[in-house]
Amino acid sequence: xxxxxxxxxxxxxxxxxxxxxxxxxxxxxxxxxxxxxxxxxxxxxxxxxxxxxxxxxxxxxxxxxxxxxxxxxxxxxxxxxxxxxxxxxxxxxxxxxxxxxxxxxxxxxxxxxxxxx
Length: 117
Prior knowledge:
Keywords: Disulfide bond, Signal. This protein is mainly beta. The chain has one helix spanning 101-108, and strands at 9-12, 18-21, 30-36, 46-52, 56-63, 67-68, 78-84, 92-93, 96-97, 112-113.
């Protein structure tokens, strides 16, 4: 009783006691605590916390994937990226880092913008 009902988490009370997590998910991330009690009951005689960090592969959504713009007009290219650890996003044009969007348009304006993969 009191054990997780999710079959992807299995507790084995044999020696050594184990908690086995099958197919680890993002929501398994967190602090797990083990407490040791005497069979007679009462307060825990020992406890220990384990911080489980679940890494998550980066996911990227870029819009638009291609665009044409008239010289002098504005365009916004958007990149939504998530993951754990958080991914680092860098914008490049022709292999060179784009540090400032305003600088990019002021000095390198083109009619067609593409993203560097």
